[in-house]
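Supplementary Text 2. Reproducibility record for the structural model of the 82-residue chain.

All settings were left at their defaults, and a single model was retained for analysis rather than an ensemble. We include the record here because the model underlies the residue-level annotations in Supplementary Table 4.
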Amino acid sequence: QVANSVVDAFVHTVEQYVTKPVDAKIQDRFAEGILLTLIEDGPKALKEPENYDVRANVMWAATQALNGLIGAGVPQDWATHM
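Retained model, structure tokens:
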């Protein structure tokens, strides 16, 4: 379940980040932070399931991946969900 959640959050972020190039620097940097956190802490969450800090970072990244902030004013493509 943890691995699925990490991948889901990653895909949601990518769908908003790489769809079309626009000058949305804040959204891009925020998306990059989410992706880096998932890349760094996702595997740790699987290896260290009792590590509260790692799991908290993954949960926070997953929450931010689809709360609308990184997609504000940015064209999005949700075709991977079809």
